[in-house]
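Q&A log
Question type: sequence-to-structure
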Amino acid sequence: MSVPDVRLAIDELTTRVYLLLLRQPAPRRSALLREGLTEDEVTAALANLEARHMVNAARRDVIEVFPPDTTLPAWAADLERQARTTRSAVEGLTHMYNEARSGVAAGQSSRDVAILDTLEEVETAFFRASRRAESRVVRLVARSDRMDQVVIRHAESIIASHSTVTSPALERQVVFEQSILEVEGAFSALETMRADGIDVRLTPHLAFSVLAVDRSTAVIDITHLDTGGGSLYVQQRQLAAALMDMCLGLFALATPLPRTPRGKALVRLTDRDGQILALLAAGASDLTMARQLGISQRTVERRVRSIMTELGATTRFQAGAIAGRRGLI
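Response status: OK
Response body:
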């Protein structure tokens, strides 16, 4: 099954589960299982709904469903903001697409736009572009098996450029799909990136990957949809600037990776609780937190309840909000 097909199946599953929950006067996980859903399907759908702040599934069986007249408009508004940002880049991207194909045979390059035919060419283009950075590098990272491995094993290569004597104020920003947190070890890798000075953010979905550098150079990477053909290396300044604007718009809408509180900031909570609180604020499900921290889901559920009690919160969403107001994350 292709990546778009998988995402469509997940969206359809999430919709089905949400409609079942709305019809239940006392929504329960066990009731969903009786509808013929598997444990994995229920967990995946509830994780999506929690990320959209539509339900609270922190307890083992009972599920709290928030009123759709407040949650659905908020989610729709967020999707519309992302759509507006993407639409704003359509004209520039269409021009780039047509220019790249106008009188240029497949596998050849124009002066300003090069068609990248292989994965190796795409990776070379990323490093070539990032080495030129002087003021700002923004990268959008769409999910793929290859990128998941890069994040875990070679996090330093996500944005290869660093501040130097000639560019001491270089801004480095990266946006990942929120589902990256489902990959074991990802949260630690993202924290390492942030410790290196990269501003890391999360967003529900990215259609493709982009690297934008100084409004002068960009790389469009569609290798998660293909084997490399059709990706582009852009040096045409107007088009590169349009891609940078699109990246900055999506970056502004994305959620900052929550910080893990430590030491005195936790009061009666442990350092492990701090990691759970950061993941909780990032919208991670109990299963995802257990995978990231190497502990059982039952332990996560118990610690989440303790955190909520400590913060005086009645829902997981409220716990994240309180932690944010207190400056813990």
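Response note: The CA atoms of residues 25 and 238 lie 55 Å apart.
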